[in-house]
Amino acid sequence: MAQPLPAGQIQTATETSAQCQAGALAAPPRLPTDLAAATLSARQSLANKLLVLAVLGLAAGAYAYSMDRSLVANETYSALAAFQPSIGLVAQNALRFDPGKPGLYHILLHWFCGIFGHSEASIRAMSIFFGVAPLALLIALGQDLFGFGIGIVAALLWAFNPEALVTARLGRMYSLFTALALAHVWAISRLRHKQTPGASALAGLAGGAMLYTHLDGVLIIAADCVVVVREFRRDGRSLTLPAVIFSILLFLPFFPFAVAQTRALLFAHWLDWIGAPQPHSATFKLVIAVLASAPILWLMLARRQVSERSESFQRCLIYVCLPVLALIAASVTIRPMFKIRYVSPSCAFTALVLAYLLDKGGSRVRNLTAAVTALLFAIFALHTGQPGPWPRIAAQIRTSGSPVEPVVFEFQPSGTYDGGGEFPNGFLRVPFDFYFHGTNPRLAVSGADPTEAAKSITAEVLKSGGAWLISAKGLQGATAELPRNNNVRIESVNQYSDVVVVHLLRSH
């Protein structure tokens, strides 16, 4: 016969619901055994996964549209470096002709094209892959910081954004730069939940790789430092500081080259295509520096005791604002250097910030606005931009001239900081040679001295019976370099976007 258990050891059947309602006993916790709720949760999880796959798949399709069009000039410099026979020559070529881009992208492209070939599509395919990666990272980062809804909306806003489309379709390093910056920040955000040596090393490795992709990654590291200051002010410690330090340590071997390249970019002629530097007073420069620094200081020193969600939003704002304000301030005070692709990571973070703000109006407003915006942006997916003119230029010279007629390009004379002049054979020589394989001699004249250029071109026309001038200075600039000689006549002038091609012949 069963013996009664000591009183109070277990809850007995005689304890009624009335006793629970009267407060004599606490209601037992509800166990997650509701089949309907479990089914709903499983369906929601499946729907979320399908939504992620749909966004990534549609974006990949949009990025791959018309990927075999002819290369533009700067893409041929990616190809020039990647097609070198050894890694050492790849790095050397990247440092020589692509300052500010330390070479990681070129090395990866070298390996990629070694497997998939050297066509225009192969050159761009790696950018498409790294163009899709930021979408997955935005979803992961958004989910960690604010929830899945905001993450997927941020990815949708960025997926068909014109800037995302351009960088993903371009055979350059900007999609890789964006992917590594987001991977670095996402890995850092994970450290706030669980810090391990392996996780810190992964975050630092992503940051180091970012720095070896584009020197503007320094601005992302600067934003990291601002976030670290906020962490110390808020929590009295920083779980992300070791990862930031590791990123910097990984970049130290390249630091002397980075200093030299930065000096050349700022004070030589590499960035003249954006605009010439303008002189300003010290007072003006100080005012601009203060105005640019004020928002960052405010974000760094703002109220400490806020919710984790609000704190995450402020961190995102730091990654949006600091790189953009720094480049704008430097463009005003030193020389023009701002291009939107240089701050592509900040643009991706802007999508996350906008998704967070849209969520303030409720999930329905957030989702509807994101869907409409993505639909409007999708129009840009059908616009692939102008293909490079170089196949047409090559065909014109091959069919309309003589193989003995030289092709003349413009070079920039050597300056104080550029170590021998930028593109001594002319910037347009590389895209031309990528598509033209004729025997015509190639020559270069000074783009800074139109009079001397005209004399050199005249001599070549009289000696060879004709010549081709390929100029990046527009019709007016090319006209200043043309011969003023009755024995030389202009056979044809063609303008391909920003490239002017002039065919000169000797008069008989």
Question: Main β-sheet: number of strands, strand sense, barrel status?
Answer: 5 strands, mixed
Low-confidence stretches: 4-25, 416-420
- Overall strand count: 5
Shape: globular
H and E order: HHHHHHHHHHHHHHHHHHEHEHEHEE
Strand percentage lies at 5-15%
- SS field, number of helical segments: 21
Strand order of the largest sheet: 2-1-3-5-4
What multimeric state do the chains show? Answer: single chain
Mean pLDDT: 87
- The Cα radius of gyration reads 30 Å
Secondary structure category: alpha/beta
Report on this structure.
The protein is globular. It has a five-stranded mixed β-sheet with strand order 2-1-3-5-4. It contains 21 helices and five strands. The model is unreliable at 4-25 and 416-420 (pLDDT under 50). A hairpin with a 2-residue loop joins β4 and β5. α16 runs antiparallel to α17 (363-381). With 508 residues, it is α/β, with parallel strands linked by helices. Helix content is 61%, strand content 6%.
Topology:
Blueprint: H1 17-21, H2 35-64, H3 73-82, H4 87-97, H5 104-116, H6 120-145, H7 148-159, H8 162-169, H9 174-191, H10 197-211, H11 217-235, H12 241-251, H13 255-267, H14 282-301, H15 308-333, H16 344-359, H17 363-381, H18 390-400, E1 407-411, H19 429-435, E2 442-446, H20 450-464, E3 466-471, H21 474-480, E4 488-496, E5 499-506
Parallel strand pairs: 1-2, 1-3
Antiparallel strand pairs: 3-5, 4-5
Helix pairs in contact: 2-6, 2-7, 3-4, 3-5, 3-19, 4-5, 6-7, 6-8, 6-9, 7-16, 7-17, 9-10, 9-16, 10-12, 11-12, 11-14, 11-15, 14-15, 15-16, 16-17, 18-19
